[in-house]
């Protein structure tokens, strides 16, 4: 069983600042981290391997040379190998071009070691579209399952996987043929503490670094800014909401406050 996890380096959006003049993210204001959903994706691959008693886990990232840090972090969680595709030709990519470049790298990895499952995060905390996973599945012509909260069972003989998928009003169980692509929610698992041996491996690990020339049969017009039909029309910080009333205290105290607020504003509800 060979699982490839796609991992993205993102700015820590809990601390990042927005430049008030340009309304763009000031990426230097926050440290770069492994996208938190992708950490859960790597952890899930480790859990699946443990359950099966064998398997290999590779991670793949597209980004600048510094993105090797998220590959090392993934090795620390338990991945065996890592690939970084990095090249000026990939710069300025939107989700369409990102999924094209990553799917070309997945094809190359699969030629060397057939891939049974690709796992991605539900979304990246910076771009936040959730499009890259399904985009890669479409290009590779494999079934995508989004919002996975549990990988329940893997049948290696039938080459199927049973997964639990979150819905707005419950969940559904789906049996999917492998190879397939899953995108995972944070509930899928809890990140474990890494053993010291993993940390030592991660510190010594040198990821495989590929440029565009290392990928096979790439249509360069589909890469980077050239291959990105998305145009960012405007970016702005939404204005702070005016007014509002925070309720506090015990539930009874909150009900009393709410009744006061409603009584003050009864004209809004047409109450005499
Ligand atoms: C016009 C335009 C220009 C842009 N230019 C740039 C730019 O120059 N530099 C830049 O950094 N961003 C740029 N972006 C943002 C970039 O398109 C997105 O960050 C990227 O396509 C991923 O989309 P997302 O963040 O919405 O990921 P999502 O679709 O939300 O991510 C879902 C999952 O896909 C996987 N994934 C996503 N991206 C990667 C990745 N790079 N490597 C490995 N796995 C991944 C992860 O598993 C992740 O959890 C640009 C966007 C637009 C619209």
Helix-and-strand structural type: alpha/beta
Number of helices: 6
Using the coordinates shown, work out and report the CATH topology. Answer: Rossmann fold
The low-confidence parts are: none
Query: How many E-type strands?
Result: 13
How many domains make up the 3D coordinates? 1
Under the CATH scheme, which class? Alpha Beta
Average pLDDT number: 93
Helix content: 25-40%
Order of helices and strands: EEEEEHEHEHEHEEEEHEH
User: Strands of the largest sheet, in order across it?
Assistant: 11-10-9-12-8-1-6-7-13
Supply the key terms:
6 helices, Rossmann fold, nine-stranded mixed β-sheet, 25% strand, Rossmann-like_a/b/a_fold, alpha/beta, 13 strands, globular, binds flavin-adenine dinucleotide, 272 residues
TL;DR?
One of its GO terms (molecular function) is electron transfer activity. The protein has six helices and 13 strands.
Write up this protein.
With 272 residues, the chain is an alpha/beta fold. It has one domain: Rossmann fold, CATH 3.40.50. The chain is built from six helices and 13 strands. A hairpin with a 6-residue loop joins strand 3 and strand 4. The mean pLDDT is 93. The site of flavin-adenine dinucleotide (FAD) has 31 residues, from helix 1, strand 6, helix 3, strand 8 and helix 4.
């Amino acid at each position: 069983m060979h699982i490839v996890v796609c991992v993205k380096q993102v700015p820590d959006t809990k601390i990042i600042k927005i430049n008030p003049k340009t309304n763009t993210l000031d990426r230097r204001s926050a440290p770069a981290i492994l996208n938190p959903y992708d950490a859960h994706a790597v952890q899930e691959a480790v859990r699946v391997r443990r359950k099966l008693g064998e398997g290999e886990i590779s991670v793949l990232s597209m980004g600048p040379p510094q993105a090797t840090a998220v590959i090392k972090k993934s090795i620390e969680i338990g991945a065996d190998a890592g690939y970084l595709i990095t090249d000026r030709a990939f710069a300025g990519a939107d989700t369409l071009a990102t999924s094209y470049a990553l799917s070309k790298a997945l094809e190359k990895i699969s030629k060397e070691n057939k891939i049974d499952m690709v796992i991605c995060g539900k979304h990246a905390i910076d771009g936040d579209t959730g499009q890259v996973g399904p985009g890669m599945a479409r290009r590779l012509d494999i079934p995508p399952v989004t919002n996975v909260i549990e990988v329940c069972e893997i049948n290696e003989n039938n080459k199927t996987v049973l997964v639990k998928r979150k819905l707005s009003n419950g969940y559904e169980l789906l049996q999917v043929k492998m190879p397939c692509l899953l995108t995972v929610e944070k509930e899928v698992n809890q990140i474990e503490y890494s053993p010291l041996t993993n940390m030592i491996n991660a510190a010594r690990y040198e990821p495989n670094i590929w440029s565009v020339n290392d990928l096979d049969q790439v249509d360069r017009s589909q890469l980077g800014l050239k291959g990105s039909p998305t145009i960012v029309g405007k970016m702005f910080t939404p204005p702070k909401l005016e007014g509002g009333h925070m309720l506090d205290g015990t539930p009874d105290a909150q009900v009393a406050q709410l009744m006061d607020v409603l009584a003050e504003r009864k004209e809004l509800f047409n109450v005499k």
